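Changelog entry: the Carbohydrate kinase PfkB domain-containing protein record was regenerated in this release. Current contents:
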Amino acid sequence: MKRIATLTVNPAKDVAYEADRVFHTHKIRAHQEHYDPDGGINMARAIARLGGPARAHYLVGGATGATLDSLLDMHQMVRSSIPIQGNTPVSTAVYERETAKEFRFGPRGPASPSGIASMSRPSRRHGMRLSRRERIAAAGAPEIVNKDPAKYMAVTMGLRPFT
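Regenerated structure tokens:
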């Protein structure tokens, strides 16, 4: 069976809360704090939960990247992190119980078009290679990846398929 290798170019650590009501300028006491990885990391996690072979490749940096790695340790995922300059973003969602509305906040992160220069040719140094038994699924930063995914992975990521 082929293994799915996911590549998440702009992962985030997702944080979700519930609040009775959201008011501007006030500190809101939240309930039900919950942490999850996002994007292609979740694709790999779902494939593994369904019994399929999967490996997650993802860019990670800074103190928030270390907390994302520790979160993935809890899930016992097969994975390969690619160090970058800058911090892994933290995305926040707040569910307002009174109105049943959800408010979402997500920074661009270091792999956005404005932050792409902060990447330091990560995978060339860290050996991200696909085997003949792997197929890749890319996720995150659609404004970057969708323009030319093959070129993005080959040039920016240094990805070498089928070695």
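The chain is about 25% helix and 30% strand.
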